[in-house]
Amino acid sequence: MNRALILLYGIGCYVVFFATFLYAIGFIENLWVPKSMDSAREGSLAGSLLIDAGLLAIFALQHSVMARPAFKRWWTRLIPESAERSTYTLFSSLALIALFIYWQPLGGVVWSVTSDAGKAAVYAAYAFGWGLLLFSTFTISHFDLFGLRQTWLQFVGTPYQPVEFRMPWLYRQVRHPLYVGWLFIFWSAPQMTVTHLFFALATTAYILIAIQFEEHDLVAAHPEYAQYRRRVPMLLPFAKRRRNNSQSLANDPQTSGLEPTQQPASGSSHRGARISA
Predict the structure, then answer these.
(1) Over the stretch 158-202, which tens digit does the pLDDT of each residue have?
(2) Degrees (nearest 5) of the Cα angle 198, 201, 203?
(3) What is the pTM of this model?
(4) Range(s) of the domain holding residue 255
(5) Is 276 part of a structural domain of the chain?
(6) CA distance 148 to 252
């Protein structure tokens, strides 16, 4: 494939991703978009539940299977290696677009925040989640995560080098700040409907399962990740073991030499916005 075409392909995939990202902000919290998570219910409860579960399963399978090294080795026999990450980004975006189109609200209210102060706090937590999510991608390598760096390097004829294992401040607090952002997003609802609760429970379960696969790949790709995993909490920055981490991490000769500007680049929370991504 022509170098310029691969670059244009990468740019196009990124544009699709960014538009999907913006729509997701409105979809999850029922803001501004024509169809959102809690639009009017159209079908039976059982049928709607099956459709929603199927849409979430499609996204989970795509997001996890295409991120595995074995799949990548097979996939890059069919497409240019420099376009692999952009293609992953595109397929993830298409899976989300299908979810936006075919999602079936279930109805029902689990809780509702009625005070203005309470609503403001929930919306602030929602905004914080999106901010943390986006910021996390830039503390590693935003354009590498979404494939633009790979397509640009092939365009200028520079060999691609994967992002090295380095730990910025955010990734010294928790191993998966990107996922923490997603959890804030999923659970910050001023009105928690049955629909939203199902979505939040399913996506939270997916995150907890995906982390196990992701970290298995990270240990294989970066042996030093095993020690990093023992020292830094997964999702909760105030987990008990963190109290002993900061000093030992700073003094450990095997980790103190790592650049404090980036972190492992592989897998879901490290290589893309999993619902990066």
Answers:
(1) 999 887 777 889 999 999 999 999 999 999 999 999 999 999 999
(2) 105
(3) 0.84
(4) 3-271
(5) no
(6) 35
Burial bucket for residue 111 (CB in 10 Å: 0-12, 13-18, 19+): exposed
Number of domains forming the structure of the chain: 1
Residue 137 has phi, psi (to 5 degrees) of -65, -30
Other Cβ atoms within 10 Å of 259 Cβ, number? 11
Domain-embedded: residue 67: yes
Backbone angles phi, psi at 112, to 5 degrees: -145, 125
> What does the pLDDT look like over 248-274, one tens digit per residue?
554 554 443 333 333 333 344 444 333
The whole-angstrom separation of Cα 83 and Cα 127 is: 32
CA distance 272 to 265: 9
Instruction: Note whether residue 26 is domain-resident.
Output: yes
